[in-house]
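Researcher: Here's a chain I'd like modeled. Treat it as a single chain, no partners, no ligands.
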Amino acid sequence: MGDVHPQGNPHFYLDPYNIPKIAFLITERLCYLDRENCPFYQKNLNSFKERWNKKLSIWNKQMKKLEGKEVFEYHRLFDYFLIRYKIDISGTLESLPGIPPTTAHLLELVDISKKQNVSFILYAVYNPEKSVQFLQKKTGIKAVLLPHDVNALIEVKDIYSLFDEIVRRLTGD
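Model: Modeled as a single isolated chain. Structure tokens:
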């Protein structure tokens, strides 16, 4: 059945609206473990959320132009991000999560691309490029390498630059 996660898709952190929720939970736990310094953690959380909300406003504006676009993903890695920004997933290069693409499945995606206006093939640094290049050559669809985590690419040094780079690579801004 492939690499099926019994608890669900673990890539929930790639929805930028989940990051403040995660930060809150971390702060809550730190306050529980270190009550004496809780005001410090809460102050940092508030500063973080203020900066994060400013960035969200920028990313939302940039991503608006991709609303309704269709993409292929190599793996169901960017689902939360794509759903957040109303980008449709037309298919995945993996027929099942964690199972390498077969030629037959890639040719099915070629057929899908003829019926749908797929804008991008999205993949991460650890996805083999051979299948991406095959599909790109057969369809002419632009392949976009996206960072999936901090330090996945040289430009991604922190959580802010992770989303800056994802948005930049998708929008060209």
